[in-house]
Design goal:
- This protein is of the alpha/beta class and 359 residues long.
- The protein has two domains: 195 residues, 3-Layer(bba) Sandwich (FAD/NAD(P)-binding domain), CATH 3.50.50; 120 residues, Polyamine Oxidase, Chain A, domain 2 (Alpha-Beta Complex).
- The protein has nine helices and 18 strands.
- Strand 8 and strand 9 form a beta hairpin.
- Helix 1 packs parallel to helix 3, helix 1 runs parallel beside helix 9 and helix 4 packs across helix 5.
- The two termini are 26 Å apart.
- The structure holds flavin-adenine dinucleotide.
């Protein structure tokens, strides 16, 4: 199948790709978004619990330092609320000894969008022509042709599921994932390929849990919900409740690597035991429990992402290049942003750059 007369093919329907699509549709440019998964959003993932949307991917934005996120949230008619941080914190040491410690407020303040982070993607989708978003479309090959590019969807070595031609491509996925899973013809330079592979995808090796409760037991005990543990499996926990009412939630990240999470079939039980050690027995009985291991997601993580990344890398366009093949392919995706790389804000920064440079 060939789709003709497209200006731009956007590869990846995460925030960066969807925002690029939104910017192109405002410019009345023709495009398709090729998204490998059966849903848009990428690392943004929220489930619907009776109208409350626990985030299993990103949940925070920082209004004081995220101008593009703020602008987008406001433009799309969304609102947010500040992370709950009132009360004391908890700390669990290597031996499982738990003590109450002084709580702290993050600075700059962290906010959560009402309706979960997925509300951003839902709203963006509503502004983009439905037919332009092609789900279940994993790109496996990009070939330079005389007047642009040909992009193949499907699996390498098999008959392509679909092929698209366009003048430009916006590569809106983590560069490491692109280098590891997409064939480029002609070859990319060795330096560029290495730079792409070495650029770790932020949080790709992490997992996130979300436990929901009818009552905020921890708040009633004077705790903020914030906790840190040296013991694990959880390393960092926060209050993840709805704005002014229930459900109330505890959510957070792990301090054990993906390989250990994969082996441990009783991980949920271990999490609940740890939550009850930190917050008391009621924490072991949530009304709902969600878990997402991003390291197992083939459209987010590669083998190089399996170890936990402890520090936030300094991101920049790979090998200093914002584009490939004289500008035919533009890099987008948060990990290619030189400001706020790895974060949602970086996804927007890189998409704006890609759209501007491909116009
Ligand atoms: C657990 C977790 C917590 C986080 N917390 C925060 C937070 O609180 N605040 C914050 O700012 N950031 C946070 N982040 C980071 C944030 O999620 C990312 O910066 C942002 O979502 C990146 O968007 P993106 O569009 O650049 O990439 P992605 O969201 O990764 O989108 C890439 C898209 O490309 C698709 N794709 C992959 N391969 C192919 C292919 N071959 N063909 C077609 N499509 C393909 C994927 O399915 C995906 O939809 C967190 C991330 C995680 C995982």
């Amino acid at each position: 199948m060939f789709t003709k007369d497209i200006d731009t093919i956007i590869i990846g329907g995460g925030l960066s790709g969807m925002y690029a699509a939104w910017l192109l549709s405002k410019k009345k440019r023709s495009f398709v978004v090729l998204e490998a998964r059966e849903r848009t959003g990428g690392r943004i993932l929220s489930f619907d619990h009776h109208g409350f949307f626990p985030d299993l991917g990103p949940s925070w934005y920082w209004p004081e330092i995220n101008p593009k996120m703020m602008h987008l949230i406001q433009t799309l008619g969304l609102t947010g609320y500040q992370q709950f941080e009132t009360g004391m914190g908890r700390f669990e040491n290597f031996n499982g000894f738990v003590q109450t410690v002084r709580g702290y407020s993050t600075s700059p303040a962290s906010w959560r969008p009402t309706g979960g982070m997925a509300a951003l993607i839902t709203k963006l989708s509503q502004t983009i022509p439905h037919a332009a978003i092609k789900l279940n479309s994993p790109v496996c090959e990009i070939e330079k042709k005389q007047n642009g590019v040909q992009v193949s969807v499907g699996e390498l070595e098999k008959e392509p599921q679909a092929q698209f031609r366009a003048g430009k491509v916006i590569l809106a996925l983590p560069p490491r994932l692109a280098a590891a899973t997409i064939l480029f013809t002609p070859d990319l330079s060795r330096d560029l390929t290495q730079a792409m592979l070495k650029m770790g995808t932020w949080m790709a090796g992490q997992a996130k849990f979300f436990a929901l409760y009818e009552e905020p037991y921890w708040r009633q005990a004077g705790l903020s919900g914030q906790a840190f543990s040296q013991r694990g499996p959880l390393g960092e926990i926060h209050d993840g409740s709805n704005k002014d009412s229930g459900p109330y939630g505890l959510t957070g990240f792990f301090n054990i690597p993906a390989a250990q999470r994969n082996r441990d079939q009783s991980l949920t039980k271990a999490i609940l035991v740890q939550l009850s050690a930190i917050y008391g027995n009621p924490a072991a009985q949530p009304i709902n429990f969600y878990y997402q291991d991003w390291a197992r997601e083939k459209f987010t993580a590669t083998q190089f992402d399996q170890p936990l990344m402890r520090e936030h890398p300094v991101y920049q366009p790979p090998a200093g290049q914002t584009a490939i093949w004289d500008g035919i392919i533009q890099f987008a995706g948060s990990e290619t942003a030189s400001q706020y790389g790895g974060y949602l804000e970086g996804a927007l920064v890189s998409a704006e750059r890609a759209v501007m440079q491909s116009s």
